[in-house]
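Hi F.,

I've been meaning to write this up properly since the lab meeting, where we talked about keeping a consistent format for the predictions we share between groups. The idea is simple: the sequence comes first, exactly as it goes in, then the structure tokens exactly as they come out, then a line or two of notes. No screenshots and no reformatting. I'm using this chain as the first example so we have something concrete to point to.
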Amino acid sequence: MLQIERPSVVSLDQILPDEPLLMMGAGPVPIPAAVARANSLVINHLGPTMGAVIRQVKSMAQYVFQTRSPYILGVAGPGSAAMEMAVANLVEAGTRVLTIRQGYFSGRLGEMARRVGGVVEEFDVALEQVATVEAVLAAVDKHEAQVVTLVQGETSNTTSTPHLAEICRRLAARGCYVIVDAVCTLSTMPFFMDDWGIDAVITGGQKGLSSIPGVSLVAFSQRAFERIRARQSNLAHWCLDARLAQGFWGEGQYHYTASTSGVLALHEALRLVCNETLEARFARHKLCSEALQAGVEALGLRLYAPRACRLNSVVGIVMPTDVDGNRVRQHMSDVHRVEISGSFGLPIVRIGQMGEQSRSANLFRTLHALGSSIRAHGGRAVDVPAGMSALEKRLCLAPEEATA
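Output, unedited:
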């Protein structure tokens, strides 16, 4: 006998807004039509078609990660699942880990390492500072770290790690295994896995790659995978076991039923990156982010992160003291159909500049919505025409890069 009554539900058409929101927050981001079409398909996860798709995904990912390593694995989960795969496979009970913490997500890497038994020391980076090579190396020596985790970009407070390349090279020279979170930065700014000596790099589909949420990538260096193969203990996470995942992604063996639609979407997202070329993509993102920042400052607002460590892919904006940022964001959604992000306890709002967000039409719409919404909620000093003019002036320096 049935104990639970049949629920009364409505279709998604009655739940979703008539006019979709322009997603300009810290992710997920708008996706191209080709990615959306691919995500609507289902194929056999073990058939020859899937094998061909995976081979191309790995080849394109090698280009985007800038690595010759064959150990590129997809993860049926968010960027945090890819984080956990990297950490859990390289860290065992007793492994000494140094976490460079400059915000919420970099701190999460340390928490993951603790949960698998790592002996974790945290090196805190204040907002007004940057992680210097000398300070990181001193912390490594003090803790005798075997594994170091850090981020290229910290979305929670919109800061970057400007000395990442040299830090990673020096750590590799000391024999440390280096794990880098490039979830919000990959394909938006230069990243060179092999040249920088990185052992594991993580990215999510829903940010710079402009793919769907819930499918991620992790790349391991040859040296890192040798360490994984040499593990004496079994990984507690069956789904995230890199050795089992390599059986599927490298040898066509069954691991679990892969997210075929998600992998197809990821394929198309990577294909579009490759077609654009990394050089052109880096230039487009840099131009658009700097134009947005110029427009924000011309509005009369302050950018949160200092220039020395400012992240271009997610821009933090300090709200006027007499304006409620949450009400501003709600006004932007309700009136202008533009959605941006709040923060992790900081007095800021965050605007994404990743993938399809970095288009001139999106910048004009978002900046106008921000300025108008602040004015509507008490920020009378905000100069919307000046902000729009500054944005246009900066974009006109190289308009083809912003619209390509």
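Notes:
The mean pLDDT is 95.
The first strand starts at residue 22 and ends at 23.

If this format works for you, I'll send the rest the same way.

G.
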